[in-house]
Amino acid sequence: MHCHKSYLVNLRKIKRMTENCFFLKNGESVPISRRCFSESERIYKLFLAETSGNLQIIP
């Protein structure tokens, strides 16, 4: 999933999401651009619902 012009993120590697970045399971953080936030949030929520039903979005 593209969350920023310079980044592509594997949904399976995301630990949690905030309003401006993804925190990955390896401890790294990846920024989410304002332009991509709504679509990134929608895709991430859908992924969580399909795989675990556990939403971890922190405003």
UniProtKB/TrEMBL annotation:
Residues 1-35 form the HTH LytTR-type domain. It comes from the Bacteria. InterPro entries: LytTR_DNA-bd_dom. GO terms for molecular function: DNA binding. It holds the Pfam family LytTR. PROSITE patterns: HTH_LYTTR. This is HTH LytTR-type domain-containing protein. It comes from Caproicibacterium lactatifermentans. The lineage of its organism: Bacteria, Bacillati, Bacillota, Clostridia, Eubacteriales.
